[in-house]
Specification:
Blueprint lengths: L6 H12 L4 E3 H7 L7 H13 L3 E5 L6 E5 L10 E4 L5 E3 L2 H15 L9 E4 L2 H5 L1
Parallel strand pairs: 4-6
Antiparallel strand pairs: 1-3, 2-3, 4-5
Helix pairs in contact: 2-3
Length: 131
């Protein structure tokens, strides 16, 4: 099935690619694209399409009903498990040796394979722990 590429979709994809290590709400995306004239309805429509295409992961944060989106089609993200701070919302890559070690240990000990592109571990980042 071919995807019709609109100006709104192109702008949204450019924004998501440039913020691939972050989780963003539709409202945050709308603010960031506000000067481009992209409507909130176009943002929601394109987010839903990108999610169904497997390019986005829908994320919720503890204690909140707000939905966030993480762009997971970025090449530099595919090999890493993501770490997400439940206080500030920043998302980081787990370093590759730690990612590989975790995946190997879980597979060996539990006979279970972790999908790197879908896995997000939640906790508190170093900056938030200091504050």
């Amino acid at each position: 099935m071919s995807v019709y590429t609109t100006k709104q979709r192109t702008l949204l994809l450019e924004l998501l690619r440039s913020h691939a290590d972050e989780t963003l709400s539709a409202e945050e995306i709308a603010k960031m694209l506000g000067s481009e004239g992209v409507s909130i309805s176009a943002i929601y429509r394109n987010l839903a399409a990108l999610e169904s295409e497997g390019k986005l992961q829908r994320v919720t944060k503890g204690g909140s009903r707000r939905v966030y989106y993480r762009y997971k089609a970025a090449d530099h993200c595919k090999e890493h498990i993501h770490l997400s701070c439940s206080k500030c919302g920043k998302t980081f890559h787990m370093d590759l040796p730690a990612t590989n070690s975790l995946i190997d240990n879980v597979k060996r000990d539990s006979d279970f394979e972790i999908d790197r592109t879908e896995t997000v571990l939640y906790g508190v980042c170093g900056s938030c722990k200091k504050n």
